[in-house]
Give the backbone structure.
Amino acid sequence: MRMNLLVAILLLLLPAPVGAADYKTKNLVLVTADGLRWQEVFRGIDPLLMELDEAGMKDAEELRTSLWAETPEQRRRLLMPFLWTDLVSRGVILGNGARGAAVTLRNRHRFSYPGYSEILTGRPQDDVIDSNTLHPNPLPTVLEILRREWELPGAQVALFGSWNVFQGIGAHDSEAVFINAGYQRLGIAGATERLRELSRLQFEILTPWPSVRHDYVTFEMALEYLKTTKPRVLYIALGETDDWAHNRRYDRTLATAGYFDDCLRNLWAAIQSDSAYRDSTTLIVATDHGRGSTPRDWNSHGAKVEGAERVWIAAIGPDTPAGGEAHDTAGVTQSDIGPTMLELAGVDYRKLTGVEGKPIDLIVGR
């Protein structure tokens, strides 16, 4: 009896297995804004860029006036009111280096495919992902692992992306999850009229970029899919914040950042109004890479651009305490997003091959 009692005590003292916590999260939604700088997220409109004619601000007086305020805290709420008024007040955001909460990339390339892959696989793959060429992800992604571990049909794990390269980024096995990205017709049997309309519309309202369709089409497709198919796992990848920045159009970059915030508002409203998702869904918001911080390089990123390694992460959900703006959280990286998703799903995050990240304590509530 003494031996049995001793064994029972030792078992109680052992740490719980990874992924064994009793989480309330039953659904996961990930949303990314390509190349949306931490500077705009945490400081709003940039005083260094707002007067630059060569950044598209020559005829942007109305936009400039609507977004300007004396403090960074006021400016960021004007640019992204839902993020700062609703999401952060009930969840958490990390990425402000001034508060000791910088979030960085592990990959050395600092551009899109390596960044998105790091998010979805929990590690950099610098030697095998060194371009934005469309090809299958070399490793299984968190989307594939969630489908397998939750034993879901393929339609229940979905990715909608504005950039066509997500057709490869999203999965190692292209048949493992549902993906619609770039100028890609929607191949869903029994699709609603709204989905069919959006599929047609993408070819009628073209962007300046052949590989990136309008975020409006991507988001509205994803929202309709959420309402009708009710996936357990959904990834929405929006892209125009990056493309307008590359075109040195700061006015359009600000406008699409504001639209991204509107998308988050509408998405969260849809989640909370649906009994299948309400109070059982964690929403994680992030970006794939940062950009430069000067008038010369704000539109650029890559291995040689200082500051392009700086990113940010926000989250809201039933297991995430209302921590607000994080401080003193050194060491958080982009590789931590995938492990955080698996932890909330009750899955051992080490199922990600060669994972280097770990669950983010502020998001998983510990």
